[in-house]
Design a protein that fits this description.
alpha/beta; six-stranded mixed sheet; six-stranded parallel sheet; 14 helices; 18 strands; about 35% helix
Length: about 450
């Protein structure tokens, strides 16, 4: 079998620092322009900077095994090469003053030399350029999921009427012929009467159990749909350590997570405090571009969180200015007393977070590695909730299939400490539902 040559774009290395080891016993090619771009990222304090430094250290280790320009062996049987010169070869359709074009030209030159070449990039435009030149192109496929087959956390099953009756009369029941993920919700539907149903949840042992009646509402917020009811079941269950909520705008992901956080922290005192964070895009961007101290700068990014807190603590009332002012003071007191803490994701790395209810909003803008870094901060007694819409991504190198939120859903679905539900119905307003569905 002919050896394949994989020419990697810089963004692949910044997305996943281990990417050079992901192509088996083939040749991984890094153009000199990629090394130069890594050098420009290495001093940054964000995840991109950390990945750049990891790659550079990895390359420094590999160079002891040979000459990088000629190719050095890797542990997986592959070979790594750093090439220069190829990117300066003339091509009538490439302006080699542009860094992306110099990287693409390396793949093009190798192809012209008769090699079986694949250009790998997270940048769609770079892939389009390479494809136009006749080079085979790929996105970086590792840590990707099929968004069309994403685990929804819910299914409907037709069963005999007797099974539903036994469930209500005798409690937990198995369903022969089906395998359910832990904490997956199941609507049992009478195969003879579609109106005769039972909404249940799969336990770790595969038995189907009733939903907990006390989990129908949280801090005055009641579920408005079957999906929201299932979300509250996961959010309020103390045995579930990580919850993922996927849904379009207006489905109530953040609102339900905050309501559950207030219920379990203030009312039930299961947690010491609530920590809320969301990525600032680009990830780790210096907050100094906004006026004020760190908290004042962060407030701009956290305004959706303040809006939801105000709605919950105000009982949904927005018609009275005096009441709104009273509600704002309640929100400020929670922040002043540090019952609710808002933090930029940049500052979470390195922390050990114990006995807290942690909400990571807009998690679809995080890479799988960034999500792993955040979840690994969880100490004893901490619950993590990740919310987001994989179809609303601001990160230019992520899509609905490669982001950290959907990757987490698929990777953790078999674990009993994880629960997931996809919310599909917008409950914000009729207008919001129309916008989500038609625009």
């Amino acid at each position: 079998m002919a050896t394949k040559y994989f020419v990697l774009d810089t963004n692949v290395l910044l997305h996943n620092a281990d990417s050079i080891h992901s192509f088996g016993d083939n040749v991984v090619v890094l153009p000199m322009t990629v090394i130069e771009e890594l050098d420009s990222f290495k001093t940054r304090s964000d995840e991109l900077g950390r990945n750049a430094r990891r790659v550079i250290r990895d390359l420094d280790t590999l160079r002891h095994g040979g000459t990088l320009s000629e190719g050095v062996p890797m542990d997986n049987g592959g070979t790594l090469r750093i090439v220069f010169g190829y990117e300066s070869m003339e091509h009538p359709h490439l302006d080699l003053k542009i860094a992306d074009n110099r990287i693409v030209s390396v793949a093009y030159t190798l192809m012209k030399k008769g090699e079986d070449v694949y250009f790998v990039s997270k940048d769609i435009n770079a892939r389009l350029k390479a494809d136009a030149l006749g080079v085979s192109v790929q996105d970086f496929e590792k840590q990707k999921v099929n968004i069309d087959e994403l685990f929804s956390g819910y299914r409907e099953v037709d069963v005999p009427s007797a099974l539903i009756n036994d469930f209500f009369a005798n409690g937990p029941q198995p369903v022969e012929g089906f395998e359910f993920c832990p904490n997956e919700f199941v609507l049992l539907r009478d195969e003879m009467d579609s109106k005769h149903t039972a909404l249940v949840k799969a336990a770790a042992d595969g038995m189907l159990v009733r939903l907990v009646r006390d989990y129908e509402s949280a801090y005055g917020i009641r579920s408005r749909s079957k999906e929201q009811r299932m979300a509250l079941e996961l959010l309020l269950d103390p045995d579930i350590a990580i919850v993922t909520l996927v849904g379009q705008a207006g489905t109530g992901k953040t609102l339900l997570a905050l309501a559950a956080a207030l219920e379990t922290t203030i009312k039930n005192q299961h947690f010491n405090k609530i920590l809320v964070s969301r990525p600032i895009i680009p990830m780790g961007k210096d907050l100094g571009y906004m006026p004020g101290d760190k908290d004042e700068k962060l407030r701009h990014w956290m305004q959706p969180i303040f809006d939801n807190l105000t709605f919950i603590l105000g009982g949904g009332r927005t018609d009275d200015e005096e009441h709104r002012d009273y509600t704002r003071k309640k929100v400020e007191k929670l922040l002043k007393d540090q019952i609710v803490e808002m933090e930029a994701l940049t500052y979470i790395r390195g922390r050990s977070i114990s006995n807290q209810f942690v909400i990571i909003d807009e998690a679809q803008n995080l890479t799988p590695h960034e999500v792993k870094t955040i979840i690994s901060r969880a100490g004893s007694g901490t619950k993590m909730v990740l919310t987001g819409d994989p179809y609303q991504i601001d990160n230019p190198y992520l899509d609905s299939s490669s982001n950290g939120l959907t990757y987490t859903v698929e990777r953790l679905k078999e674990l009993s400490l994880h629960g997931h539900i996809t919310l599909r119905k917008s409950e914000r307003s009729e207008l919001a539902a129309v916008a989500a569905s038609y625009l």
